[in-house]
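Weekly structure sync, notes
Attendees: PL (lead), two postdocs, one rotation student
Agenda item 3: pending single-chain targets
PL asked that the sequence for the first pending target be pasted directly into the notes so everyone works from the same version. It is reproduced below exactly as submitted, 189 residues in total.
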Amino acid sequence: MIAGLFRRASARRRAVEGLHVALSMAARRPGLYTRLGVPDTVEGRFEALCLHAILVLRRLNRLPAPASEVAQDLVNSVFTQLDASLRELGVGDMGVSKRMKKLGAAFYGRAEGYDAALEAGDAAALRAVLVRNVLGGEGDGRGLAAYVQSADAALAGADLDGLLGAGPPFPEPDGFAPASVHAGDGGNS
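Predicted structure, written out during the meeting:
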C-alpha cells in the first residue's frame, strides 16, 4: 500500500491531511482539558496540538522510509494550519512571520524535551516538562504524563499503514488521573 500511495502526490497529500485531522481531533478531546488540566485557551490548544503532533512525529521518525517524508509533510501541514489560524485572528504579514518563528522554536524545543524524557523513561522529567509547557506551571502533571506515556507506548506498536489508515492510537484522556492534587498526598511530584 505504501509504495503505491507515494507514487501519486495527491494521494500522499490526502493521507497526510487525514493524519493531521486525526491528531487535531485527539488534541481537542474534552478530557485533556477537563481531567488532565490542559488550559482551555488558545495557548492550551496549541500545546495540545503540538504534544500530539510531536508524539506522532516521534513514531514516524522511528519507522522505515517513506515515513520520514510523511513526517516532513505532517510538519508542513501543521505549520500551514498555524499560519492560517494566525491570519484568521487578524495578525498581519509581518506579525505572522515573527510569530511563526517563535512557534517553530517552541515546537522544536518541546519536541526535544518530550523526546528526551520519553527516551530516558524519566517520568519525573516528563512531568516537569509537561507542567512547564502544557499546563502553564499549574498542577502536578501526573495524569497528563501517564496519558503521554500511554500514547507513546500505543504509537510504538503502530506502523505507517496503520497511522495513515486507522490513525494514531491515542488513548482516551478520561481514563487517566485528574490533574487536581488530592488532599493528603502533599502535592509532591
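Discussion points:
- The chain is about 70% helix and 0% strand.
- Residues 93-120 form the longest helix (28 residues).
Action: rotation student to compare against the earlier draft before next sync.
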